[in-house]
Amino acid sequence: MTKDNNSKGIILIIIAMTLFAMQDSLIKYIFEKASLYEIFFGRYFVAAILLFSYIKFRKQKVSLKTYYPVWTIIRVVLHFLAFSAFFISLTYMPLATANALFFSCPFFVSIFAKFFLKEFIGIMCIFLCCIHDYNKIHI
Length: 139
Description:
Number of helices: 6
Order of helices and strands: HHHHHH
């Protein structure tokens, strides 16, 4: 990987995190005036329009066929439940705290990878996940 690609990646991550922060702030503000599922509908409707416009602009062929329909449905349901819980949490706690807890994902991914995917999780991974999560919560 070249230095140029790293710079582009860093810029894109900064842009993405800025957009996520703006989205979460808007959802916390809008949640007082609209229901959660209206927000979901608007969010995913706009995302679908942008995605399909991008695909059409790039003239890419896309197949919506899945070889794992059960896993796809499970993933959709879990995604829906996770974002519902996260957006509801925004109404009960400060935005910074909710996002710090949201980014504890690597810790849980490591645990689930061990049990569901039978992947080896070394002591260094556990150590880094613990340090990472400790630093986020205590900032």
